[in-house]
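To illustrate the input format used throughout this study, we show a single complete record. The first block contains the structure-token representation of the backbone; no residue identities are included at this stage. The design step must infer an amino acid for every position from geometry alone.
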């Protein structure tokens, strides 16, 4: 993480660093359900597969809450880090941890009590009921552990440790894979064995997630950060898109379970086979969804940081890259579903199962209809997550809502009943909804993309080298650094002195040059330059870029105002370090006259600004700002006045050649 620069590093490198571990993490999350489905399908049969499908809406609910809290905290963390607001960043993490613990326990208790009624709501049939309840009760016991590590994994990735997040999930998945066949086949536990293996893996992942909290590196957490406050609503607001997306998927899943069960009972397939096949194909489809969402969510820190820092061109470039990558992934999965439906479905059922033929027939039908154009979904999901990274929750949510609720459900009902296509009408409705949603999403994405603006290159964007390619007619060959108290008139002295010596004076110009060097916007660097109240990762990047700029401009005679220039150039022999000061009354007069500060507030503001300058200097140089050892000359500006002070310094400097 220390070697990464969100503002300047190659975007492909950043995407790979964050997205690959994120994709693996999300794929592993999907593997939990797929592994259970495979072993249960082989060991229990069609009814076992149907049971896991009935319980899957509960897992969606838990993931929805984890996304609400975790993705919200992660998005808020990235945005606040981009703005250099460390206080809100740490509060968002602390609030997320506390809220996750409370909600996960309450939700699990409710789900356990209501499970017998919930399974029927989720499309359960009488023949599947006992399998679903046995599987679900054990899954619910492990739900708090799953909800916690799922939520924290998003924060871990945003904190710059995607590999740790990946490891956390890999360990749990491996344990699940090992224990599944042991419990199902060796101990003959059936669906209960699959559920128990899953829960044990989740507990291990929970412990690993818990261990990371003390290792969070982007901010320092205090006990106060864990107290729920109004900042909690900001976290939840940014995670709302993820929550609503999952909730919409829940509605879709419940709708599909019920309508396939009903229409299936009216067809040769019966009620249980469509329910089972839909669960199987949905689990495989979750690999596609996990890959696309993993890349999109992995890009969130890059998008959020650069958006917060105002680097809109990098935001646009990142968006273009992930859209292309995800669309290619969509095409690959599309080909797999169309070309190999029997091979995919065959993983989940034994050839000796009495319903094997009908199971495979319905699986092929579903892959060639419902999954026909799933590649278009990649654009919808990428746009939704990307817009969420920019803080636009409403549009992000709208995209998913349009596809699943506004389009798919009404279209499927029309094709199934009035049009008379029955169960086939429901399946083909998926492809129709994908096309319509793709067209609508193009317009939504374009509107957001246009808002990011166009790249503007002007003459102002000259480089340090261009500035230094000047011929200096004067023989003066010194570099002067001027440190000054706020209100001492030091900036005016520096400009007058530069004119007299015929050399450039770098003050506000350093902000623009630093912005160009660091990759941050001019406004962001200027804001940091004005506040200087915290010293973290952003500040370090700015200081490093500023140091590089100062060393470059110091290759020629010039005056550099403030910014620890005396310390940065301490090893250069042709540097003269000057400190300018004045008495409090003179500083107050200047603050009132030139900075429009009310007289009653002037002294307090002056002292606060000088205190911040001293802290900044101490942090980077480990020296005292006003120490006599740092400077070659200390001058009381009011002894001479600004004009005469500049004349005095000119004589001194020319005489010191």
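Output of the design step:
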């Amino acid at each position: 993480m220390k070697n990464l620069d969100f503002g300047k590093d190659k975007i492909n490198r950043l995407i790979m660093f964050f997205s690959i571990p994120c994709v693996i993490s999300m794929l592993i999350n999907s593997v939990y359900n797929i592994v259970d489905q495979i072993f249960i399908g082989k060991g229990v049969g069609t009814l076992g597969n149907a049971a896991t499908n009935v319980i899957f809406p509960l897992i969606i609910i838990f993931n929805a809450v984890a996304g609400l809290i975790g993705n919200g905290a992660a998005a808020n963390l990235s945005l606040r880090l981009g703005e250099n607001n460390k206080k809100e960043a740490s509060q968002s993490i602390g609030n997320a941890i506390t809220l996750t613990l409370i909600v996960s326990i309450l939700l699990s208790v409710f789900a356990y009590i209501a499970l017998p009624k919930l399974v029927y709501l989720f499309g359960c049939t009488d023949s599947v009921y006992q399998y679903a309840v046995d599987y679900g009760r054990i899954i619910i016991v492990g739900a708090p552990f799953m909800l916690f590590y799922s939520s924290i994994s998003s924060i871990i990735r945003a904190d710059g440790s995607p590999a740790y997040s990946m490891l956390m999930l890999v360990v749990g998945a491996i344990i699940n894979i090992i224990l599944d066949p042991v419990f199902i086949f060796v101990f003959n536990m059936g669906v209960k064995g699959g559920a128990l293996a899953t829960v044990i893996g989740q507990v291990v992942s929970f412990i690993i997630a818990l261990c990371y909290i003390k290792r969070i590196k982007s901010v320092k957490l205090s006990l106060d950060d864990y107290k729920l406050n109004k900042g909690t609503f900001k976290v939840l607001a940014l995670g709302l898109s993820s929550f609503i997306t999952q909730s919409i998927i829940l509605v879709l899943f419940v709708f599909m379970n019920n309508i396939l069960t009903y229409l299936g009972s009216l067809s040769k397939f019966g009620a249980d086979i469509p329910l089972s096949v839909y669960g199987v194909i949905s689990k495989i489809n979750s690999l596609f969804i996990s890959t696309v969402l993993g890349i999109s969510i992995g890009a969130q820190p890059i998008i959020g940081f650069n958006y917060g820092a105002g680097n809109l061109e990098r935001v646009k470039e990142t968006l273009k890259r992930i859209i292309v990558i995800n669309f290619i992934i969509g095409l690959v999965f599309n080909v797999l579903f169309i070309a190999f439906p029997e091979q995919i479905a065959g993983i989940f059922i034994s050839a000796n199962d009495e319903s094997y033929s009908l199971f495979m027939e319905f699986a092929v039908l579903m892959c060639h209809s419902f999954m026909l154009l799933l590649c278009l979904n990649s654009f919808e999901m990428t746009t939704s997550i990307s817009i969420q990274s920019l803080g636009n929750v409403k549009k992000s949510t709208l995209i998913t809502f349009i596809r699943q609720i506004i389009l798919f459900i009404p279209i499927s009902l029309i094709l199934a009943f009035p049009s008379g296509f029955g169960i086939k009408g429901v399946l083909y409705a998926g492809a129709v909804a994908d096309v319509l949603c793709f067209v609508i999403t193009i317009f939504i994405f374009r509107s957001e993309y246009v808002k990011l603006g166009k790249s503007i290159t002007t003459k102002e964007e000259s480089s340090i080298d261009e500035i230094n390619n000047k011929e200096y007619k004067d023989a003066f060959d010194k570099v002067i650094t001027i440190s000054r108290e706020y209100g001492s008139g030091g900036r005016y002295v520096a400009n007058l002195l530069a004119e007299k010596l015929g050399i450039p004076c770098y003050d506000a110009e350093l902000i623009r040059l630093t912005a160009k060097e660091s990759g941050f916007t001019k406004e962001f660097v200027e804001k940091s330059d004005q506040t200087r109240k915290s010293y973290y990762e952003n500040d370090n990047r700015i200081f490093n870029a500023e140091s590089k700029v100062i060393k470059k401009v110091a290759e020629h005679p010039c005056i550099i105002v403030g910014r620890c220039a005396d310390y940065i150039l301490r090893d250069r022999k042709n540097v003269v370090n000057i400190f300018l000061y004045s008495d409090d009354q003179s500083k107050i007069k200047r603050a009132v006259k030139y900075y429009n500060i009310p007289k009653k507030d002037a002294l307090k503001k002056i002292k606060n600004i000088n205190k911040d300058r001293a802290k900044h200097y101490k942090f980077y140089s480990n020296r005292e700002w006003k120490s006599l050892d740092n400077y070659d000359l200390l001058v009381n500006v009011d002894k001479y006045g600004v004009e005469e002070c500049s004349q005095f310094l000119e004589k001194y400097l020319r005489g010191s050649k």
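Structural context for interpreting the output: Residues 11-451 form one domain. The first strand starts at residue 479 and ends at 484.
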